[in-house]
Amino acid sequence: MTGTGYVGRAVRRREDPRLLAGRGRYVDDVTEPRQAYVAFVRSPVASARIARIDTSAARSAPDVLAVLTADDLAGHCSGWRGLLSWPGMVAGEQTALATGVVRHVGEPVALVVATGRGPAEDAAELVEVDYEERPAVLDPVAALEPGSPLVHEELGTNLCFASPFGSGDVDAAFAGADTVVDVTVRTGRHTAVALETRGILAAFDRDERTLTVRISTQAPQMLQTLYARLLGLPENSVRVITEHVGGAFGMKAFVYPDEIAVAAAAMLLDRPLKWTQDRYEAMQSDTQARDERVTASLALTADGRILGLRSQVVSDAGAWSMYPRGCVTEGVQVATIMPGPYRVPAVAADLRVVYTNKAPLAVYRAVGHPPAILVMELLMDEAARALGLAPDEVRRRNLVRPEDLPYTSATGNVYDSGSHLESLERAVALLGPDGLEERRRDAAARGRLLGVGLAAFVELSAPGAMFYGAKGAPITAHDQVEVTLQPDGSVTVLLGTPGQGQGLHTTAAQVVADGLGVPLEAVRVVSGDTGVVPHGSGVWASRSAVVSAGAAHAAAVEVRGRVLALAGHLLEADPADLELSEGVVGVRGVPGTRVPVHEIAAVAYWGTHRLPPDLEVGLGAVGSYAGPPYTFNNGTHVAVVEVERATGLVRVVDYVVVEDCGVLINPDIVDGQIRGGVAQGLGGALLEQVVHDPNGQPQTSTMLDYLVPTAYDVPDIRIEHIQTPAPTTTLGTKGVGEAGTAGAPAAVHCAVNDALARAGAGGVFRQPIRPEDVLDALDRAPASR
Amino acid sequence: MTVAGEPVRVRLSVNGRAEVGLAEPRTTLAEFLREELGLTGTHVGCEQGVCGACTVVVDGAAVRGCLMFAVQADGRAVETVEGLAAEGGMHPLQRAFWDAQALQCGFCTPGLLMTALVALRERPEWTREALRERLSGNLCRCTGYSTVLDAVLAAGRAGAGDGGDDGSAGAGAPASGEAGPR
Lengths: 785, 182
Description:
Chain A is α+β, with helices and mostly antiparallel strands.
C-alpha cells in the first residue's frame, strides 16, 4: 500500500452518472442492423414425451424467417451434462431445445425467428406440439421411492447425488448429551427475479467465422469458453459483451439452453438475432434455489455446550443440473456450512439431491447458507428454551473465540480469522436490550407481539479452484486485470470481471489509484468485452473484492515499479529512494525533486532513446490473483419483528447488522451489498416462494404471485463494521456480497418464533412464514387469546 | 381509414420536443419510446404494471409505460428519465441518488426517479414512512430501498420538485467529483 488512501473511502460510484441519465446499455437497449427477433415455444406441461412437432403454419406466418427445433440444431450445437466430479453424481444430457422429452413447464421446445418481436410471438402460437403427458415427479422424497416415475429415464434413478459430510464421533456426542433438541425445516423454492430479465443479441460473421454475443450474464469469460466448445468455434472467435447487467444474483452464471439456441440460430441464419425474455418466461425458466427439507438435531451439555450436530438434507434439484456449475452446490453448502460460527466438535450430515419436474435449482445469492444458518439458529433457540438460557447466552457459550483461530470446522472449513464472539456482543449492544421491554409493551398495546431474533453466521467467500475447476468445470478461480499508464499520465484499467451493479469499476479504480500512486480521477476502468479484457472468472461467490481487487493491485504495483525504474534513471536516483503519490514522483526526503508522472510516461512512450536498452519501457501490465482456497467473513444479525395477532402479518421493525468482511475498500458499497442482501433474505423468510400445483404447473408465474420485498417491507438497517483483515488475501479483504442474504432469513425467522413463544405458541418451521402459519401457531397455543 | 393492426402515426411531446413515430395498436408506450424513438432509458421489467421500472410521466402523472398504448399518448406530453437533466448537468434527484448510492444495477432507477419526481412535485416534504408507501410500487432487487428513501428526502429538501437543473456539472463526466462530499 502506498498510502494515498482511496481504499477505505466512501467515494461516490463512477458507474452512476450514466445509469442515472438513462444511458445504461443493457442487452435490450442495443439494436443491430437487420436484427431479427426470437420467440420460444415452451413446454406447457411438467413431464411429457414430444410425439410430434408441426411447424408448417408458423413457417408460413407473416414476417417469419425460420422455425427451428432440436432436429435443426443437432450438429450445430452440442449437448451437455451439468456434471461435476462429485463421487456418484449423475446428470442427464441436455440440448438447447428439448429433444424428445420435456421435463419442466417452460422448457424450450422450438424457436421462431421473425422480423419483429410481435410477429415472432404470434407465430410461436402456431407451432403445434403433441405432448404425451406423463406423471410429474414433484416431491423429492417420494421421488426416491421404488417405482417412482423418473425425470431422466436414461439415469435409472431420480437421485442426482448423495453423500455424508462431517467428522467426529457424533454417536458418542448424542449418547453423552444432557439435552437434545431437533427441528424439521422446509425452505421455500426461490428465484432471483433480477429486474432485467435474461436476454441475448447474437451475431455471426460468416467470413471471419466469429460469433459476438451481447448477453446479460455474470460470467462472460466462462460463456466464451463454453459457447466456443458447444458451437464448434475456437475460443478466440467468440466475443462476449456485457455492458450493463440489471441484476443477476447467481441466476445468470450458466449456459442457458434458450440463450445458446439463439446463438446457434444466429450462426445458421446469418442475421443478428435478439431475444429478450419476458417475465413470464423468467418465472418458468430462470434457475431456482433453496427448496431444502432439513431435519437436524443438536446434542448439548446441561450448561449449553454443543457436543454434536446431525442433519439430513434433501435438496430439490428440479429437472436439470445446470451447466456448468451443477445443482449440488446448494445442498453441499447446506450440509457443510451448518455448524456456522460455533464450535461443534462432531457433525454428521447426510445429503441427498433429487431430480424433479421443476425448473432447475442452482446457485442463488448465498448458496446454501440461508437454510444452513436458519437450521442452526433455530436449533440454538430451541436449545436456549430447553436449557432456560437466554438466546444470546447459549450462542455466547459456543461461538468460536479469538484463541480458537484459525478454526477448522467439523465439516472441514477453515475460518482464517474473524470476530465471531465480538460481533455478537456488538450486535446485542447495538440493539439496546434495555429498551426491549418497553418496545414489547408498546407493541402489545397495538395488538402486536414483539420478537427478537439473532443470527450469528459465517459466509464462505472468494472460493478458489477447488470449488469448480478441480471438479472438472471450466470455471477459474483467478482473475486478471490490466493496468496501463498512458503517455499523458491517465490510467486505463481493463477489468477481467465486470459487475452487475456492485460498483466494481469504482472499487477497482480505488485499488489501482492507491497501488500505482495516482489521483482517482486519473483512472478509467473498462470492462465487459472478452475481446478486449484479460481473463476474469465473473462475479460469483462474493469474490471480486478479494480476487479482482487483488489482481488490480498486482497490476498497479507492477506498473508503479516500472515507472519508478524509469524515474530512477531520469533523475539519476535509486528507485528505492523514490516515491510516487497522487501522480507525482519525488525523491524521498528531497522536496525539490517532483516530476509529474506524465513526464516519465512521455519518455517511456516517445523518448526511449534516452533510456538504456535493458530497461523495460512498457507501462502496461497484467496482474493476476489466485489467492487462498477461500476466506470466511462473519457477523451477527438481529431482527426485531412485530406479529399482528389478528392477521398473522409479520413486519420487520428494526434490523441490526454487525459485519466483519475484513478491510473495506468502499464502505458505502459494502453497506449497499449488506442492505440489499438483507432485503433478499427477508423476502425468503416472509414472502418468496415458487408454488406448483399437483401437476407441476407453476402458480407463481408473475410478479404479482411471486412476491419480492417492496420499500414498505424492508426496514432501515443499522450497520456496524468490525475489520479483521484476512491474513491470506492481498488487501486483507473478504467477500461480503452474500453475507446479508446468509444471515437474514434466520434472524427474521428466530424473531417470529420468539414473538410466538412469548405468546405461549410453538414456532413455525417453514419458510416463507405466511400469515396463515402464524395464525395456526397462535391457534394451537394453549394460552392463546 | 386504417387497417386493423397496421401502424399508425403517433405525435406527442417527449421531454419538451415534438416527436412523431409509427405504432401498431398493440405497441405500448414503453416499447414506442424504446424502439421507435430510441429512448432506451425507460426499462421494461415485467410488462404487466407490477415492477414500475417503465414508469414515465404523462401530462404530469406517473404512468406505467407498459400499461399504456402508444396511441393513447398521441397529443400528450411525456417525460422520461432522459429529460431529467439539463445539458451537462444533473437534476437534483439524480444528484441525490448519486450522493446516497441509491442504485446498484440501475435497471429500476429510471422508474424510481420518475415516480419520485411526481411525488416531489406534489409536495416537497414527505415523512419517511409516507414516502416508503408511495415508492412501494417500484421494485428494486439491489438496494433494500433505504438509500432510495434517503435520496428522495434529500432531493425534496433541495427543491427537486421545482424542476430544472441544479447547475452543477457531473453527468457524463464520471471522473469528476467522485471523491465528493461524503
